[in-house]
Amino acid sequence: MDWTDLYDQKTMVEYANKLADDVILEIYNKKLSIYKTLSSKELLLLLRFPINSVTYMFIERLLRVSFQIETKSGVAYPKIDYELHYFNNTREVVLSYYHDYAINHAILHKIQCIFNHNEFLHMQTIKNLPKPQESLLKREDGFNLKKQARKILASINSFYVKLIKPKVIGEYSGWMKSTLSSRDLFHFDFLGSAREINYDIRSQIKGCYENIFFKYANKFVGAMDEIQAKKVSKAYAEFMDCALPLSIVEGFEEKYAYYKSRLNQWDIKQVHSFTGYSLNENFKIFAFLAKRKGALLVCHDHGVVNYQPFFAHADNELRFIDYFFTWGKANSDWIKSKRPHVNVKIINYGTPFLYYLLSSLKLKKWRGRDNNSEDIVVLYPAQPLTEFMRDLDSLSPEKFYQHRLNMLCLLKEIKTLYHNLKILYKPFPGTDSCYDPIQNDLVKSCNDGSIKVLDINVLPMSLYDKVDFVLWDSISTGFAESIQTGVPTLVFQSKYEFNCISSDEGKKINRELVKCGMVFYDVKSGINSFNRVVNDLPGFIEDRKEPIKRFKEALAYPVAKKDFLQQMEAALSNG
């Protein structure tokens, strides 16, 4: 049991979204000198993702402590001598607030003290004080030939774009390389000069955080008295102080002037990105300046979600853009359901990215088992397993952990039945090995080399043609990639994931995947599916054909780049 069993997640998400919007409106009404040239909508695009993301995290920590008080459970978080510092960009902000133990344990301790630290004296205190995970933000040092080659190509490409000023521009990424012409790609990475902290501006923004949160405090935890509400509001303001990176505050005016100059005499018609409307402030500044000149703002989905509510998308990038391209070719109106403020046009033509992976042989077709080998090789690329939640509407860490324990039970049972089983286990980047039951239990107990833990940087797609089947613990982008190759694929899905599906059609497709044996919800059913793959592979492959076809059409349909561009241009031209 965890806080998601005590509080309604959807309600908390709604309040958190309103809180973030009101904070940004308060900042806008301050008429700060650095943002004086922006409209309210432009400021919302610039600030909302970091403010919304870190607000989500603070509310989750608040509800976690409140739950512990209500149920008299949990741990006492010790005081940590650690102060937040300002980050360079939004990516660093999100990574640090999400993963850094010191940041998160420090705020949990502060909230516990506000609610009454004595309540936690009977609880177990964490003995090993966590340290900041600075390694998350480090880059590889030393000379790297491939990296240097990429930098040179990027410089040449950027020079070319600046020279010819194409009518269509896309933020450079692996996804975008498969979508637009290389001559239309640009690296939005302007750094600017060194800058000092603008404490006056940040103090005013900090006041906005505190004032607005106080109005919402009792919507999240109704049992707070006025003194506690004021203290929690102050804690929120201090926690949020570093949510806006240097690039958005101290470096904003320089970036604004740079991109405004670049857009001078540039007849730009379309601006495309996969993640830039959220994570790249350089791109966002360019985008709203291009919008002033009449350009269309276009966002492309960068993966697959199993018909989950698109709260994060809908309340961030989708409300600012004109078009959103999905990976499927079926109707996707469910994406913006229950979001009346979202007027974006959803386009479903499939994705050239999957087609690129297949045609470039990065995704190699599965050709069947090696008949000369007696081993059964299983690849298990796990989903994230962390101590803290990033999104208020996601599965809680406790439920993720319980699901991983269920997977552990399944793997143990299968190993008992098949002594020739070899498991390739790929932890998700950011997974703490100390928190992972697969590594702490199964890996340590198997001394025969039957389980190999892969490096987190290994791409699962590079191994699909080398294994007998792939096992997932969730339907996501990896699952969508693996089924393109034909490799036998199984999913031990949590019931929570199915219950969160927001589309009747999505539930129907998931039930079809269950019926054919690809998806299951318990260990017994998983063993049955495993036995079917091993003993009746032709029958399994035949039964899954139609469900896979429907899933691809709905969420992961490969389409050639040439065909995609033709359809995209027609859609954008016709409005």
If you had to describe this structure to a student in words, what would you say it looks like?
The chain is α/β, with parallel strands linked by helices and 575 residues long. The chain folds into three domains: 3-130 and 196-240, no CATH class; 150-192 and 251-357 and 560-574, Rossmann fold (3-Layer(aba) Sandwich); 360-555, 3-Layer(aba) Sandwich (Rossmann fold). It has helices at residues 9-29, 40-71, 90-99, 101-116, 145-164, 174-177, 199-220, 226-240, 252-262, 276-279, 281-292, 311-315, 352-359, 397-417, 437-445, 477-485, 495-499, 504-515, 523-535, 537-555, 561-574, and strands at 75-76, 124-125, 168-171, 185-186, 270-273, 296-300, 323-325, 345-347, 376-381, 421-426, 451-453, 469-472, 489-492, 519-520. The strands form three sheets. The protein has a six-stranded parallel sheet with strand order 4-3-5-6-7-8, sandwiched between helices. A six-stranded parallel sheet has the order 11-10-9-12-13-14, sandwiched between helices. Strands 1-2 form a two-stranded parallel sheet. Helix 16 links the parallel strand 12 and strand 13. Helix 1 crosses helix 2, helix 2 (40-71) crosses helix 4 (101-116) and helix 9 crosses helix 11 (281-292). The longest helix has 32 residues, at 40-71. It is globular and about 70 Å long. The model is unreliable at 129-142 (pLDDT under 50).
